[in-house]
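User: quick one - fold this with flavin mononucleotide bound?
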Amino acid sequence: MADLSVNIGQLSLKNPVMTASGTFGYGLEFADFIPLDGLGGIIVKGTTLHPREGNDYPRMAETAQGMLNCVGLQNKGVDYFCEHIYPQIKDIDTNMIVNVSGSSPEDYAECAARIDALENIPAIELNISCPNVKDGGMAFGVTCAGAESVVRAVRERYHKTLIVKLSPNVTNIADIARACEAQGADSVSLINTLMGMAIDIEHRKPLLSINTGGLSGPCVKPVALRMVWQVAKAVKIPVVGLGGISSATDAIEFLMAGATAIEIGTANFLDPAITIKVRDGINQWLDAHGCKNVQEIVGCL
Ligand SMILES: Cc1cc2nc3c(=O)[nH]c(=O)nc-3n(C[C@H](O)[C@H](O)[C@H](O)COP(=O)(O)O)c2cc1C
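Assistant: Sure. Structure tokens for the protein plus flavin mononucleotide:
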């Protein structure tokens, strides 16, 4: 059996497979399907300083090989998370990582600071790339100045591993990644969803309540893979790759493109055990190809 362990900043992962925020709840919802401690990490639902109701329904639409969503960061706020959710998840034996969003740099930093105080949360993933909220969200992730302002503010108040999640809805994602690295990010993860749209032709109106939404699933994989490859060449910090991964082969492609670890999102909706199957598939591939550890193939192109 190959050594699957990898490091992201100060984080040690038993294997490179994590779950993508917004597609795996708080992890507990999947405990009947897989051993949660078999994962490298669980990135929980997006959390904001204040509670958010999210967008009106309909919020989801199926597309060819994927889906559109405009959930809009529905959550009960960071204080609710600390009081009610954290006690339920703090003893799960994997890296429990909180995905943080906000509408101003101060807002992000305050939310991050409250999570910094939680002993068993070793990292946050900063979502500067959500396309489905009116205030903040993706706006920060589409310019270097915007990304820098959020990462700088959070870095001052958050002392553990800081992963910044990048938007694919940009002209040059490598520039944004470099800007985050310069402000002290320990890692970047990519991609968040691609902005898309679907129309109900009988009613002559968009299928989603806010007209547009984020595209995810197998259809985005080639775009995500290309961006991971570009970013991995542009920065020295570890890259976490995601977007359309639904098999061990997909995951290995991301590792070869330069990702140190991967996340699985939309595929969890089709098969709640997909993360463990991908982990085992990576292991089998490494064994079959005589690799002693997974790091041998990271960025091996
Ligand atoms: C229903 C849904 C909710 C999501 N919520 C979040 C979120 O709260 N924060 C975030 O950073 N990304 C969120 N995402 C984006 C995913 O984490 C991931 O970046 C994206 O779906 C691409 O990966 P995939 O193709 O494997 O799903 C969400 C995606 C979906 C489908």
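One thing worth noting: The first strand starts at residue 6 and ends at 8.
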